[in-house]
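Exercise 3.2. Students should predict the tertiary structure of the chain below and write it as structure tokens, then compare their answer with the key that follows.

Predict this chain's 3D structure.
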Amino acid sequence: MTLCDRNGQPFNLRFNRARRTERDISEMLGLAKGVLADGKVTEAEAALLRDWVATHPDATDGWPGNVVADRLFRIFEDGLVEEEERSDLADLLQRLVGGGAGLIAKDQASSDLPLDVPPPSLFFPSTVFVFTGRFAFGPRRECEREVQQLGGICESGVTMRTDVLVIGTFGSRDWVHTSYGRKIQKALTYRQSGVPIAIVSEDHWASAIP
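Answer key:
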């Protein structure tokens, strides 16, 4: 039996869930920004976030919602919410919604949460690079030209061929969410399936240029 909506049209369950997940993640990011308005997280605000993720399972199935949900679970697991735990949560949320560039780029800062820690050594010859976001180094084509001059390969989208995804210092208006985009989501999905894609910051990439 085919499920239909109130207009008699079949539901596209996968599409509907994807839309719901994007909406919920956007709401979670907005909630995180509100919590961080005064630069700290109170116990009541941590509880508010815990209750929110508990009622939005679609947002916590994957990155970044699963990271936030896991941290909140560990904070409340013993029934005590200590100052150090709240400080760590504030740091996590700050990295998620803006990272270190937040004071400069404000809402257009890119997140440093998915970056490889420690960052890997980068080699250019025959390495496939993909760039996402906006770059302090210059327009994306200049970043790609620099890679190509060093023997690297640049592609526009993340695939199983991708070796390195470089995240620009600033976000992009094209990103599905303020601080990260579909290329990052896709790279993380590939990594979860065993594809060894490195995710690095613009600063790390630029420092590797000889």
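Discussion points: The helical segments are 13-35, 43-54, 65-76, 83-97, 102-105, 140-149, 182-192, 202-207. The first strand starts at residue 128 and ends at 132.
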